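User:
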Amino acid sequence: MVRLKQKDKANEELRKLRVKIDRIDKNIIKQLHKRWTIAQKMKKLKKRFGIKIVEDTRVRDMKLKHGTAAKKFIVPEDVIQKVFSVIIRESLKHQKGKTIKKRNIKVRK
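Assistant: Predicted structure:
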């Protein structure tokens, strides 16, 4: 009986932690939406002024910043680099016009 109560407490604690994770995930998605919107503006500016889409020095600088932030927050750097590699790649694909156009969807705040 005592073990069952402990398991119930553990399950309740897990439920609370999962709620927190869900909130964080939702915030990550909101932030990615904001980043996507900014990338759209960058695409227009780059096109208008003939600036090339991929700026190697910018990508290199971003990787260094991400690595520094990973160390600061004690997150494995290789994980952060992989995550941002996907984000940057998709952003550049979008700026090059190689992704499906965004539907007009409002994100709840």
